Amino acid sequence: MPDSNLLPQEIFDKREEYGLEKSFEMLTDIIETDKDNSKRKGAIKFLSKIIKLVPSLNNECFATLENILISELNIDVKCEGAEALGKLKNDKALKPLKWTLEQKSAGVDLRLIVLKAIMTTKFKEPQITIFINELNSEYSSIREYVTSQLVGLEPEILTRILLENLESESISNKHKSEIIKLIGYELSSINVSFQDRDYIKVKYPEVVSSLLRNKTVLLEQITRNLKTEDTELIDSATLILRLLSPEINKDVIKLLLSDDFIIRKNAITITGKLKIKDAVEPLFSGLDNIYREVSIATIEALGEIGDLSSVSELLDVLNVEDISFEYTDIDMKFYIMDAVKKIYSSNKGSNYDYLLTNLESNSETLKESIAFILGEIGNEEFSDPLTKLLKTRNLDVKKNAIIALGKIGSIDPISQLIEILENPDSYWLIKKVAMDAIYYIFQRNWYRIKDNNVEFKRTLTKHIATLIEVLKKSEAENAKVKISLIKFLEFYGDEPALSALLARVNDFPRIVRIHASNAIKKIEDKIEERLGLDTVD
Question: How much is the pLDDT for 533?
Answer without folding.
Answer: 67
